[in-house]
Design goal:
alpha/beta, Rossmann fold, 2 domains, three-stranded parallel β-sheet, 50% helix
């Protein structure tokens, strides 16, 4: 029997995309209309933001653990979180979690290494682009990285929290993201990490001038593989 996947959600659009990917692609492994059992729990994003904005990562960890306990009681065998930013609290979470986890950054970095990418751009919330989540996993594999300028990080962050988390896709915002990808390419990047789970809604592989590392779908596929193997 496949292992029961527990999703610790933070923002609902990214979590929904992760959930849909698991269910849609599960049939590739298990047959028509089949996928592993999946349970999802989320506290309101506002609860997370109260701690993220003040840099209180222990507070973030406590919320993640609250979801973890609920999913453990629901029968999940392991956990994922389709939210890159809150992985800054990961080390505190796994030391207290009732279940094992897959780390979204680790799964993305594995694929970057397999594809022999040498320098990747990082897009995500301001907290993610300025935090340690991806630098740590990329450096461990000898992969260099780049982030947009401070001014552009602010606008990316605004688009994420004012538009994408609500499922709103503005053409001007799409162009801005694609222009940023072009700049990363000119700066020597050979790939780009979509390190906010809503960015795949606005940056599509066929539109990007760089190969994309879609953290949402890569995590979902890693969960499928772990569940089945």
């Amino acid at each position: 029997m496949p292992k029961h996947i527990g999703i610790v959600a933070c923002s609902y659009e990214g979590a929904a995309l992760c959930y849909r990917t698991i269910c849609n692609e599960g049939s590739d492994f298990l047959g028509e209309h089949n996928h592993p059992e999946v349970s999802l729990h989320t506290h309101p994003l506002s609860e997370y933001m109260r701690f993220i904005e003040t840099g209180d990562w222990e507070g973030v960890a406590d919320i993640m653990l609250s979801s973890s306990e609920k999913l453990f009681k629901a029968g999940a065998d392991f956990l994922i979180s389709p939210d890159n930013t809150i992985h800054q609290a990961y080390s505190s979470v796994i030391s207290r979690s009732p279940l094992p986890w897959l780390h979204i950054g680790e799964e993305v970095a594995k694929v970057a290494e397999i594809n022999k990418f040498r320098k990747t751009g990082i897009l995500g919330t301001r907290f993610l682009m300025e935090g340690p989540v991806y630098p740590e996993v990329l450096k461990a594999r000898g992969i260099n990285y780049s982030v947009p300028s401070a001014e552009k990080r602010i606008r990316i962050n605004d688009i994420i929290f004012n538009e994408l988390v609500y499922g709103v896709i503005e053409e001007g915002s799409k162009k801005f993201f694609l222009d940023i990808v072009d700049e990363l390419k000119k700066g020597g990047c050979d790939s780009v990490i979509l390190g906010c789970t809503e960015i795949p809604l606005i940056v599509l592989p066929g539109e990007s001038s760089l190969p994309v590392l879609d953290s949402t779908r890569l995590l979902a596929r890693a969960a499928l593989n772990y569940s089945i193997s």
